[in-house]
Design goal:
- The protein is α/β, with parallel strands linked by helices and 448 residues long.
- Helices cover 33% and strands 25% of the residues.
- Strands 8-7-9-6-10-11-12-13-14-15 form a 10-stranded mixed beta sheet, sandwiched between helices. It has a 6-stranded mixed beta sheet with strand order 16-17-21-18-19-20, with helices on both faces.
- It is globular.
Length: 448
Amino acid sequence: MIEKYNSVYIIGIGGISLSAIALILQAKGIKVYGSDLTNSNIIDNLIKKGINVIIGHCKEFVKVSDAVIYTSAIADDDCDLLYAKKLNKPTFSRAEILGEISVGYRTISIAGAHGKTTATGMISSVFLNAECHPFIHIGGILNNISSNVLIGKDDVFITEACEYKDSFLSLRSFTSVILNIKPDHLDYFKNIDNEFKSFQKYVDNTTNRGVVVLNADDELSKKITTDKKIITFAIKNKKADILAKNILEYEKGKFSFDVKVKDEEINIKLPCYGFHNIYNALATISVCSFFDINLQKIKEGLEGFKGIKRRFEYINTINNNVIIHDYAHHPEEIEAVIKTGKEISDKLIVVFQPHTFTRTRDLYDEFLTCFDNADEIWLLPIYPAREKAIKGVTSFNLAQNLKKHGKNVKYFSNFTKCRDKIIKMKNKNYLIEILGAGDIEHLADLLK
């Protein structure tokens, strides 16, 4: 167990997940040191909470720590990681340490190609409304708590479960949720069959007396097998345990639905935009009813969900153009966000920064069609994250191919040029969606 170490050094502590883990470990009485290559608001917050953070590398932190935790984003030849191994310090990946934390709790983990952060936020909102005190670890800033982490008092740990590099296989979950299984991270999985097998292993790790929550409308999720209790949710599949009925668009882009749990039926009005969020709400109802939270409290928690930063987040209105920012970077996520946008406005511009060269390459055909309902597409250079460039895989080439498919496309070489173009647009009455999982949030910040 991680508690046996008096101190740890976290390489890449500024990441949304490791920053949360740092505060959880600190709450357990462990002295935490950290480093990252760039400064950020997250790091400023960690320093305010008493964590010693260095920008750059720090061999001294390796020396004084009992164990070293590292982000998967660093290279294998990272100098601090190599020094830790030279000193025979125990080293843990982010996934391994999250798995260590999960063992001590009734862990609720939420997996899927998309929707994880929002569903985790909704589940957290319901637990908090029900006056529970869970630990929360979330891949975004949950507006209900103005943070990506909450130090709880109960034996419940609510966390996202990321499939990349099989990270979620380190978890031992009491409740395992699969929102959907779609082709993604093919730089690692190579094909959808391998990805499905990984999700199956994730479910196999569910603890005894636990539960598996599955989307009965998702073709691959339906094929998951387990000897654990299963709760299914759906909109279309009438055989699902938790079924949304009488769906209505009660306000542009916002939906209500009826749902029945056991013998009780209730109407829920979702406060967040997007039809796809009905699925996240159904997964939430499935989990929370298993934990015996009554349906009225679930309704209040869902209707009191204040959203996640970078998930259809309102940024500003400039010259009658409304600007929204969203983390969407997978083609299906992009389609969903565009669909939501079109439910609100007839005129839609999508500003998109592709995330990683391999995803752009592996899902290229999907990227050629996922923007079909946008009136204009503005592309920015690919955000590389952990990767090196791949010859011929560029946003400029993607823009040229989209033009060949009849799309109205513009290419911008940097954020400043894109920002200036947005500011100069007057009285066009567009909804402008700024999409991507990279540093495109800086463009959103420039427009606040």
